[in-house]
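TEACHING EXERCISE
Course module: macromolecular assemblies
Task: Read the component lines below, then compare them to the predicted structure of the full complex.
Student: A.B.
Group: 4
Components provided:
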Amino acid sequence: MANTPTASRMPSDIPAQPTPEMEDVDAFRERARAWLAARMKPLPPGEWEIPNRDTDEGVQHARDLMAKLFDAGFSGICFPKEYGGQGLSVAHMRAWSEEAQRYEMPTKFNIPTLTILLPTLLDYGTEAQKQEHIPKTLRGEEMWVQFLSEPTGGSDLAGALTKATRDGDVYVLSGSKIWSSGAYRADYALCLCRTNWDVQKHRGLSVLLVKIHQPGIQVEQIRQINGSMEFCQEFFDDVPIPADQLVGEEDDGWTVVSRLLQHERSAVGNGSAFGVIMQLGARRTRGETTDPLVDITKQLGLGADPTTRQLVAEGRVLSLVQPALVDRVGTGIRAGKLPGPSSALMKLANATTGIARAELAVKIAGSAAAAWVEPGPASQQAGVFLSRQTAALAGGSNEIQRNIISERVLGMPREFAPDKDAAFKDVKRNTIPTRKP
Amino acid sequence: MANTPTASRMPSDIPAQPTPEMEDVDAFRERARAWLAARMKPLPPGEWEIPNRDTDEGVQHARDLMAKLFDAGFSGICFPKEYGGQGLSVAHMRAWSEEAQRYEMPTKFNIPTLTILLPTLLDYGTEAQKQEHIPKTLRGEEMWVQFLSEPTGGSDLAGALTKATRDGDVYVLSGSKIWSSGAYRADYALCLCRTNWDVQKHRGLSVLLVKIHQPGIQVEQIRQINGSMEFCQEFFDDVPIPADQLVGEEDDGWTVVSRLLQHERSAVGNGSAFGVIMQLGARRTRGETTDPLVDITKQLGLGADPTTRQLVAEGRVLSLVQPALVDRVGTGIRAGKLPGPSSALMKLANATTGIARAELAVKIAGSAAAAWVEPGPASQQAGVFLSRQTAALAGGSNEIQRNIISERVLGMPREFAPDKDAAFKDVKRNTIPTRKP
Amino acid sequence: MELQLSEDQEFFRDTTRKFLDAEAPLTKVRALEASDDGFERDWWRRGAELGWTSMLVPEDLGGGSLSGAGLLDLVLVAEEMGRLVAPGPLVPVSVVASAIAAGGNAEQQKAVLPGLLAGATFAAWALDEGRGPWSGAGVTLTAEQRGSDFILNGTKSTVEAGNVADHFLVTVRTGAGLTNLLVPAGAPGLTVVPMKSLDLVRRFSRVDFSDVTVPSSASVGEIGGAGGEVDRLLQTAVVLQCHETNGAVDHVFAMTTEYAGDRYSFGRPLSSYQALKHRFADLKLWLEGSHGIATHAARAVQQRAANAAELSSAAKSYVGENSTDIIQDCIQLHGGIGVTWEHDLHLFLRRATVNRVTYGTPADHRERIATLLSLEEG
Amino acid sequence: MELQLSEDQEFFRDTTRKFLDAEAPLTKVRALEASDDGFERDWWRRGAELGWTSMLVPEDLGGGSLSGAGLLDLVLVAEEMGRLVAPGPLVPVSVVASAIAAGGNAEQQKAVLPGLLAGATFAAWALDEGRGPWSGAGVTLTAEQRGSDFILNGTKSTVEAGNVADHFLVTVRTGAGLTNLLVPAGAPGLTVVPMKSLDLVRRFSRVDFSDVTVPSSASVGEIGGAGGEVDRLLQTAVVLQCHETNGAVDHVFAMTTEYAGDRYSFGRPLSSYQALKHRFADLKLWLEGSHGIATHAARAVQQRAANAAELSSAAKSYVGENSTDIIQDCIQLHGGIGVTWEHDLHLFLRRATVNRVTYGTPADHRERIATLLSLEEG
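Instructor-supplied answer key:
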């Protein structure tokens, strides 16, 4: 039977401060610093992460780095020892992040593998699943992705139409998932599917652990406005999934996904302790990274223009406020002074900051955003502007975050949902997918 | 029986262009221009209207001007001749407005008397009511106001609790109304009240024509943030209202009020043909009036500051867009290319423009908005900033306008209303008024 | 969409719309991405036959408008082109034709106008220098007078349709002041450097002038006295551009309203969610404001009214920033599919963004307005 | 509200809150509108007994903080004062006490600190000149050195608590550079001109200096070397001000959330309307961002960290503009009653507006940030 914690404390609720049996944080920091200096390659000046992060080479490099960290005892700082992690506290992870962020790090694994999928598996996977997957992932052998959204579904994840029909020892999976980021090169997925059509929609869902590259699963990359090919759509053609790959209870998949989404909100808001905390704001403050708004200003020689100076500073303020908000909300949640769903504030802050800064970039760039002889910061940010809504859509739209904040943080009444009490088979829903193969 | 037009064309639907029996517009304009030059006093330079408009003297002056216009045949340009008006077209009113706006005009009568209450009376009043009141009003002898909102009610006008109980020849009126502008010195009101508690809320309302200053009616002025004492609350203590003062049908008052609100949206958006069309934007463009944002800039000597120049121009743009929107939407409604409720766009534009400009004023004024030795444009606009939401609340909040635009212009589904089908006596509602005597 | 049109205008607009629907659908726009010109020359010639190039040129010079107010006719074409983010150099050809018609000498009119009107040749307006105030005052490219010749040296940036232009109207500074010179594309020393554009089919160029020599008869209008005309041409460009953008936004808004009505989430259509309804109401407000100010600006520029400069800059400032806000929110309302290459939304966002920042940014035009307000006086 | 406090700090905050609830309710604030001082002196003295004036002064000078990080304790008082838009010169007294403690000579410390710490005397900081950059560089008021005296001539504007100040810390320009001078209120030639304020109880003054003479020993810290200290004092003022504003906005937001839950419209509570719910979510976002950045700024200023200037200006810029946006939307959410004098909302809006534009506007502080970013370099 799946591990279904009932207490409010869950396996992924890592202690904020060290417990007595843990290594002292300062000692850990010293040890980490020394090892990093000796063994890891510093990032080129001005870079935030491995420059070719999204290429095949970059991903392979990230896998190698994971293995290197694992061997040295620095992979999965906050994951339990029994699954290959280090069993340390959030304070250790912060110390690690502060030390590690000047070096090449496998940040490609942060989202979604380390910060979303693995913690969810930790909370709801079976012992066998955890033993099988967590150590391998911490060694860089597995990358993960979530299969949640569907081309008919929009924000309504619980309205999933992808079917998993039990047939002896297997679930037969059929349907389609979409907006899974990087699925084409990931290894495993947690997949939300419908196992029961005769009950209310949230009560007939299950989560399956699915090996991505196998017969019957077709993965198609989707080109984004900015040229990125990271998002994918998957098509399942009666794929047999062994029944022991169920994560959580059958028909109780919504519980698993709710937790997954909570991990996701933290992660996207840069508030997760399971991946290196990027602290971009702090790094910018220390002058270790460049700000694209500053880069455009310098490219165009507008540094003395008072209007431009206001715009750059406005963007700068937003990128200082965002980590400050993450810090505050994270602290509040850990201290029990803010409810858990407050992580939606981090996600919303991340998306709205990006949107506002993209607008500022266009204002600063002027006609250099429209046309250019040679590409540069202005043209690059014009591309960012075109696809700026992506962060406000992926992983739960801004609208969903605002619902969560108003309903589950501020305690306002839930939206009227006609499908709330009906059997799912009777619910009015989209029949036309937004996208077909 | 009340005059209840069933055709889509109503008495207040004035022809846009002259009909053959009307005086030629150019001839009318010449006649108006000559009379104005000979008989009316020009406004002081830079003023938009009678400077002391909101004082007792100003109001008396406006009443006298109405009488003067009436005697010369220039009052009520678009009102029917049989009620003392001139029976002319919108084109005549525009010509009149263009000629008249440089002179002292009784603009105090525009809203709500001439543009909201009188057109409503024209549409739904009995013949006797119209004969009694319209000519007197066009002579300046009566000012009007609407009694709609209630201290328990908020935006839900149809949830009125003020009772009118039929008793022989009279309705006995009891309850309270609020946010009536200038009621303390007005003469008559149209009052929305409940005559039937056993039907759905919209179906149990009636509109009564009420003489304001009479025993049993107490009018209290409410001080606004900006010091204005124009808004009032009224308390009705079993006031007998003759039954022939019913406007429209008994229990069909919502039809009357809906029409009144449509007149109000046009009026507040400066799109009504029943009062002098102010054309502030055009007048600013011609340099005939000053822009407070320019005034602050000059007061503080910031005219060469690039950031200030951006802010002033941004405000200027908004005050050019607002009349352009009114023009477009008015044209669209008259041409049948936009639905009537599009007037909500005018109202919303007026409110949002004012809000945005008040914010710009504070940005330009800087610390001069916080403290001053001598009052000036900056301190005056700081006061405007404090009360800037008034226009977004009075006469139907921005939220109500957005409901109207989405539902009745864009055809989106109506909001879920639990009180839609219930008898009003069974509906959940506020019991505590926002304000007591 | 203009709400008050004559029957002639309605017919003209419908003809243009049908032609564009048939001949320039979005699939065509996508297909033209990789082309050099960004449009098909034969297609442009057929558009010219419909009257696209004639509206700002009087009848006696071979042009002609429907209403006698050519700009008010031409904005209908701009709106329709915006609806389908159509290709084609409408703004530069119109502006240069208008300039030559208004101020060119008989020889220039005879040599250049027939080709432009027929859609057989092309022209570009070289004004922008990528920096400085957006007015004649920002022009620093100099044309030195030597004998009866002008020698041009300097660079113009973001020249729309520079890639196909047979003629350049180059706004320069001479000893006498601001001057518009008509320079043939093949003039020695004139180099057209292609620029990459955010728009799939709108092409811009950098144009470098190295001792480019033209006779003083190349001046379109008075030598040194082009200030007022440059302003009028800029107003014309901006008005056309704002109408094009409004056409694009109209289309996106309609698509999105329809989508929100069709699409269900949590058992309810998207359009039943009040948070979205209120955003749609705001988008509608901004869109109607955009149309309103663009129309006011078009009328003022057509009439050469005293407030034409202010209204056209107000239109540019308002339409420029609101258009991209509206389209971005429409993308958001579409959900994930809205940020894919295969969905058409980005085509509209690209056009609106390019229109927003060319012929002066909203901030540049606010600065123009500030100057008109004489803020530094008393 | 700070989310991570020691037990001592929680106790201190609760004590301050109880005192304010009892002794400075909003009815009291309204009653003080017509008063000259804007607060009651005995009440301030009792606040001082609670520790309000001591936190930025070390123990050996008679002060003392709870945590050893006095500014992080004092911001708790500022937040609580904001909750009730309390009267009292917290910012100027704190800033001047901090300056004298940090850089005053023994005589100044002995003469001035005891009175300030006891709440018996008052001090004001005269920095603002109503124009120019918000830093020492904006100071033009000159103090001419004559022998061992300084002669001050010029005007300072918007001096908080100038009306009650016994001592003025006047930031001036001397031949040697920026200097802070301690000037007694009664100095001949010093005139305090009261200003009207948007806030009901916060008082500002214009202070005119006409040949005001002080000995050179009036300098607080090095003559000509006050640049760094002026910056630190400004950071301190801004951090306190942002926390006060956040306290005010917290209170307004809580009031409005409660109101929306209690109030029915069309048979549903206001808080069930999604358009309002989403606005509440945004307000919450801005409010938490305001708290977050104010806390980061307070920590940096307390630690005299390298990024203290940037973070405090970021806090000022963000909190300044968002606070009034939030309160205005809360007024809107209240409906008509929200714009009446009798409702308390405007008291909060007044305070937030005054805080927004004093000690530099958000735009002034953005300009400070731009300078820190060295935008004009390579």
